[in-house]
Specification:
With 494 residues, the protein is α/β, with parallel strands linked by helices. It is built from 14 helices and 20 strands. The chain folds into two domains: 164 residues, Rossmann fold; 292 residues, 2-Layer Sandwich (Dihydrodipicolinate Reductase, domain 2), CATH 3.30.360. It is 29% helix and 22% strand. A hairpin with a 2-residue loop joins strand 13 and strand 14.
């Protein structure tokens, strides 16, 4: 059975299993089928459709177009203006046309597409990827691979059940400098790891606030744009991109840039699954705007290994008038890994070894430029084991941001004195709170008028994927799976 000439609805995507032609190779823990189940690829080309073209999707389009043996053949975006501009730009650069679809489901009906690349807002990642899998496609999806833990687990199940290869846009996994550094560290040159810190410091600005609800652009199919998200009024002035800072569609920088750095942390830690507990504190300071997510946040995770793991987010430049971003030990992003005999400080592009504060060794990286090619090669070779960022690993990295945000969401406002008192037994959290407080003072933030939010301390069962300890565990568990709009429900995969 093939998908040839079969115009199927989204409901049928959810109900049917994917079929494929060719052999099945047992690799990476479950069987993996080859190219999409349809017409043979001309010249054995891997044919790709790109969905979501306004931000990261532009990089997807450019990167896949440079991979030998791969060809972008279709584009999709719910905004016709963005879709048209992307198609025109592609035609000018590559001197050929690509088919365009406002509704991604029509793109999935094409039998001759082998793989789908997804660069939509976060709330669409899991459902769109599952739809693509159930239409017989392999998938490359941006981080975070899910908007909630429950839907992320359904994505992992769908990939296994339908024998599809699913990769995530964690391109740091392809950075040769990080690969070499972690191999060197695993050899024991600095002894045992004592702590791990991730950083996400950005120079963002207030997004502003409207007095009346924003009307979506006429070029946008807004029902399709919302998908599983709730239909809520928007008071942000800019329709595109600033969805990141609204919980309905985004996850803040903890779930935007943060997953990149937390994925590097997990890599350095040996790729553990979920942590056993989480705690977070932070808030949104200095900007009285329409955003809902924190611009200053700290989170700590306990993986049961004895190695403290902490993460920091700061979106505010050093001062209101400065163009300089905050930094810690010379890093504004990436990781700082402390060992018995020194530190590794690095991220995308590599890093360096420091002993007694002095740089002693460098690992030059390439920013993961071969990441898209790795996905294409893995699909062409039916080799899941060669994939550098497989979906289950990506799910665990993405989940860290969600766990941190759930801690904060189930917490409450506290004074600066109360925060200090509550953190007194945690030296790492206390030290970070001190640095963050100094940063807020430079912004003249009045912590009496805009207090800290102290998140709940929550114990998590990594196997059951449920909170099992903490006063707010029942509330937190309700947020693990949100109620989607009926027309766009993420399916439960058996």
């Amino acid at each position: 059975m093939t998908h040839a000439n079969n115009k199927v609805s989204r409901r049928h995507f959810l109900e049917r299993g994917a079929t494929a032609v060719g052999g099945v190779a047992a690799v990476g823990g479950w069987p993996l089928r080859g190219f999409a189940a349809g017409k043979p690829s001309p010249n054995n080309q891997l044919r790709i459709g790109v969905i979501g073209l306004n931000g990261r999707g532009k990089a997807h389009l450019e990167s896949f177009s440079k991979v030998d043996g791969a060809q972008v053949v279709a584009l999709s975006d719910c905004d016709l203006d963005i879709l048209g501009k992307a198609a025109d730009s592609f035609e000018r650069e590559h001197e050929r046309k690509v088919e365009t679809f406002q509704d991604y489901r029509r793109l999935l009906e094409r039998d001759d597409i082998d793989a789908i690349s997804i660069a939509t807002p976060n709330h669409w990642h899991a459902l769109m990827a599952i739809d693509a899998i159930q239409a017989g496609k392999h998938v490359y999806v941006e981080k975070p691979v899910c908007h909630t833990l429950w839907e992320g687990r359904q994505l992992v199940k769908a990939a296994r059940k339908q024998d599809r290869l699913v990769a995530a846009g964690f391109q740091n996994r392809s950075d040769v400098g990080l690969d070499a550094a972690f191999a060197w560290l695993r050899e024991g040159h600095l002894g045992e790891m004592k702590m791990a810190r991730g950083l996400c410091y950005r120079n963002r600005a207030s997004i502003g606030r409207r007095d009346t609800a924003l009307t979506p652009p006429a070029s946008v199919d807004y029902d399709l744009c919302l998908g599983p998200a709730a239909d809520l009024p928007m008071f942000r002035p800019q329709f595109h991109y600033d969805w990141h800072w609204i919980w309905n569609t985004g996850n803040g920088d903890m779930g935007n840039q943060g997953p990149h750095e937390m994925d590097v942390l997990r890599w350095a830690l040996g790729d553990p699954g979920h942590p056993q507990s989480v705690m977070s504190f932070g808030g949104r300071f200095g900007w009285n705007d329409a955003s809902e997510t924190p611009n200053t946040q700290f989170a700590s995770f306990d993986f049961g290994t004895g190695v403290p793991v902490v993460f920091e987010v700061r979106d505010m430049r050093l001062t209101p008038t400065s163009k300089e971003r905050a930094s810690f030990k010379g890093r504004s992003g990436g990781v700082i890994l402390t060992y018995e005999g020194g530190e590794f400080r690095g991220g995308r592009g590599g890093g360096s070894i420091y002993v007694d504060g002095v740089e002693t060794k460098k690992f030059k990286g390439d920013k993961g430029v071969t990441h898209f090619a790795n996905f294409c090669e893995a699909v062409r070779n039916n080799d899941l084991s060669s994939l550098r960022s497989p979906v289950e690993s990506a799910y665990y990295s993405s989940s860290l941001s969600h766990l941190a945000n759930l801690s904060l969401a189930t917490g409450g406002a506290v004074s600066a004195a109360s925060l200090s008192e509550n953190l007194a037994s945690d030296a790492l959290a206390t030290e970070a709170a001190g640095r963050m407080s100094e940063h807020l003072q430079a912004w003249d933030v009045d912590l009496e008028k805009t207090p800290w939010t102290l998140g709940s301390s929550l114990d998590f069962d990594p196997e059951a994927e449920r909170f099992v300890g903490g006063d707010q565990r029942q509330v937190a568990n309700k947020f693990l799976h949100r109620e989607d709009r009926p027309k766009w429900t993420v399916p439960e995969i058996a």
